[in-house]
Amino acid sequence: MWYLNKMLFGSFLALGTMVAASSYSWMGMWMGLEINLLSFIPLISTSKNMYSSESALKYFIAQVMASTILLLAIIILSTKILYPLQNNIQSSLLFNTSLLLKMGAAPLHFWFPEVMEGLNWLNSMILLTWQKIAPMMLLSYSGKTLLLLVTAIISCMFVSGVMGQNHLSLRKIMAYSSINHIGWMIAASLFFEMIWMIYFIIYSIITLNIVVMFKKLNIFYMKQLTLMMNQEPLIKMFFILNFLSLGGLPPFLGFFPKWLTIQIMINESFFSLAIVMILATLATLYFYMRITFSTLVLSMNTFIQINEFPTHKFLIMSINLVTLASLILSTLIFNFF
């Protein structure tokens, strides 16, 4: 029965995103977002863990605030139905603000790391990836309020770089990493819709690789990471390479969407914004490097028995082979087209 409930709410979660992304009216998009919200709450709240129930309540409050602002923007828009959204500044500001709050972009990120802290890795993966699709799609449909979005982009860069430094919880580190990538995706969506989709797909693949390792090894904190990774050198190598790829270092696949975003921003003469984003992302890259170096260098004498690891190792190896060799494949595909 438990699995049937999860399957039912998971199906409605996907349905809500599809309804929001494919609707031809703003009210239909709002309904899709509400279906998505009300389906995700039962998935993350369990009676066995009080932290997950706390996270569900925090998530519900933040999303209801965003939905209320979105509904207000739709009402304002309906009173001026003869004018397009691009010429209606008030409703555009409210609309974009509600979407930034829904996806957890800075400076409206206050709920995101706190919700992540109480979730298991499966629900964290859904929150990091799938729950970003509908708000990003609606943001690309709506009128672009450039000042608000540029402020959000720069805030995402600096907040993720500063706030992610002193955390030992891997879930909070992944949350601040997601805030950084949200800034890059918003910047890509300002100019060319396909680039943020490519960015999102690559970010989701890399995040999936890392979360699968954390879930299979049951790791939630930095100390557990050092203990577990010393038992498996191959898994340690894959973890380090994927974290460097998530930071966007050039030999890895994670550099590819940043490369495309920087190129389109330079082509559109947004030089100063591109420079600020690159420099601010270095702070995020610093705590990626701190995690990878501590995992690589530190060793502990405690031995931990890992059960049923051969199947997990095969799964982790298979999903990492695509990621670690895909930068060359991606550039070849773009050269062909």
UniProtKB/TrEMBL annotation:
The keyword Repeat does not apply. Its main location: mitochondrion. It catalyses: a ubiquinone + NADH + 5 H(+)(in) = a ubiquinol + NAD(+) + 4 H(+)(out). It is found in: Mitochondrion inner membrane. GO terms for molecular function: NADH dehydrogenase (ubiquinone) activity. Core subunit of the mitochondrial membrane respiratory chain NADH dehydrogenase (Complex I) which catalyzes electron transfer from NADH through the respiratory chain, using ubiquinone as an electron acceptor. Essential for the catalytic activity and assembly of complex I. This is NADH-ubiquinone oxidoreductase chain 2. It comes from Dorcus ursulus. The gene is ND2.
